[in-house]
Specification:
With 353 residues, the protein is α/β, with parallel strands linked by helices. The protein contains twelve helices and twelve strands.
Length: 353
């Protein structure tokens, strides 16, 4: 069990005083201080007000001056090459900085589904405290408001790597130029002569997916090509769903001749649906992905895709975290790295009628 950080009498009130002021037990006050979620909202409000009113001092737990510096990397899972790219970037940057890295899988394994639907399990914050790391990198789908508040209360510097959900104001994050990537993918298909271009997007109201779709629409508008709402399908970054959305596109009265897929994982599902229908790539349908994971090179034909610099994003996040650990806050809370098209074998001019 994590013990709450309480100040000495000379530095301020103890946790027992705070608990008495709020009308709760010391264990309950400790849960609030440590960001535990099993506290009723009204009880939490009383404790937080008492903490602020009495000037309770939350002692920093992540003290970079004690022993070798160590950071935690919390990933959503270890099941994909995406995570491998993130690990590679953090590992190289940590080696250069002389840091130790502890890897944690903050995923609730009882859940299933796409990456952005999975939430971290309740106990991993407690485990972070006991290790005494100097900071944290999160490559997670989403943190709860309580978890963000706990990190702030404990004065733990942290950086989000490509958050699937827009983080609260002031939270430092590193991502890719998703809008420009959508523009680049669509312009490539337009340049080959395609006008009937569909998009298989991620989940609605997810920043990265929305930005890629916005880039796609912007490129169509700049080229004077009519946007067809029926050509926009959302598959939640799920391979099986992408397969279903592709079947829907093929069943349209006027099916597309090309498709921009907002992740390489979903592009594999698109390939499967096209093969089921006897549609060849790229002769009958051109396909562009997004990410440039190893799978993009392994499939046949090799996938033309927008390279998202995952390893570089992770290394940049660690360097930002190091500056925060030294007391420097970045001027900008959002850092975006550029994307670029990797032209392989999955795109060609449309077949002439």
């Amino acid at each position: 069990m994590v013990r709450a950080a309480s100040a000495s009498t000379s530095a301020g009130p103890t946790l027992a005083v705070v608990a008495r002021e709020a009308g709760v037990s010391v264990p309950t006050a400790s849960k609030v201080v440590n960001g535990r979620e099993d506290v009723a909202p009204e009880t939490r409000r009383r404790v937080v007000e008492a903490l602020d009113r009495l000037g309770y001092v939350r002692r920093p737990r992540f003290d970079s001056l004690k022993g070798p510096r160590m950071v935690d990397l919390v990933v959503h899972s270890l099941e994909s090459s995406w995570s491998g790219a993130v690990l590679h970037g953090v590992e190289e940057a940590a080696y250069d900085a002389g840091l130790e890295v502890v890897l944690s899988v903050g995923l609730n394994r009882s859940r299933s589904g796409p990456r952005e639907e999975r939430r971290p399990e309740p106990g991993w914050l407690d485990r972070l405290v006991t290790r005494g790391s100097s900071g944290v990198l999160f490559n997670l789908a989403e943190l709860t408001a309580t978890q963000y508040a706990w990190l702030e209360q404990q004065r733990i510097p942290f950086v989000m790597i490509d958050p699937a959900v827009e983080p609260p104001p002031g939270v430092v994050s590193v991502g890719a130029a998703n809008w420009q990537g959508g523009v680049t993918a669509t312009e490539h298909l337009l340049g080959l002569g395609h006008e009937r271009i569909a998009v298989v997007a991620g989940r609605r109201r997810r920043p990265c997916s929305d930005a890629r779709v916005a880039g796609y629409r912007s490129a169509l508008a700049s080229a004077g090509v009519r946007h067809r709402p029926e050509y926009v399908r959302h598959a939640g970054f799920d391979r099986a769903a992408a397969r279903r959305r592709t079947r829907e596109l093929l069943d349209l009265p006027v099916p597309p001749t090309a498709v921009f897929v907002c992740s390489d994982a979903m592009a594999l599902g698109v390939y499967e649906a096209l093969a089921e229908r006897g549609v060849t790539v790229p002769d009958d349908m051109s396909v562009v992905g997004f990410d440039d994971l190893p799978e993009a090179r392994w499939v046949t034909p090799a996938l033309t895709t927008v390279r998202q610099p995952l390893s570089e994003m992770s290394a940049t996040a660690l360097r930002l975290l190091l500056r925060m650990m030294d007391g420097h806050h970045p001027e900008s809370t959002r850092t975006e790295l550029s994307t670029r098209l990797v032209d392989r074998a999955s795109t060609a001019p449309p077949r002439t009628a």
